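Table S2 (continued). Query chain:
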Amino acid sequence: MTLLAAAAVGYLLGSIPFGLLVTRLAGLGDIRRIGSGNIGATNVLRTGSKGAAALTLLLDLAKGWAAVRVGQAWGGEAALAAAGCVVIGHTFPIWLGFRGGKGLATAFGVVIALAWPVAVAAGLVWLATALLLRYSSLAALAATVAAAGLAPVLADRAAAAVIAGIALLIILRHHANIRRLIAGTESRISFTKG
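Corresponding output:
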């Protein structure tokens, strides 16, 4: 029952669509009708509001971290159940017809809570890739692969397995981006708007 409760809490936390809520409260309209239509921070940045994008990023990260912390109150297995389900909740939120974000920021919050050295390394990979190549999706994929690769070395076996599962979900959620990267049509991050 505690595993089910942790999974439910994780999913419900994850399903809070902060990108949609932040853009609406900021008067920026429905984020699902802008850019890629995604509810994540990268698409919020396409509104031209760096503040809204930063707030979305922090809130999505925080819900990943919070889900693991709540789960930890019920034990290690419950924390892992919450960790997986918070990312699933973000990517497939019931409130939005199961059409959510791609899960990177929420997953980053999860990894901070489960194995912070993995999060630091993956964060540096994301930052370097984003600054050098200016592709948010490529940076996300590089950081995701780095996290999955480093987790067996820097985290315990169970946490590493959950991180690998989350990484696989994130990669699958980026299938359209991968196709555009290969075709050379993927949009770049703009650091000059807003």
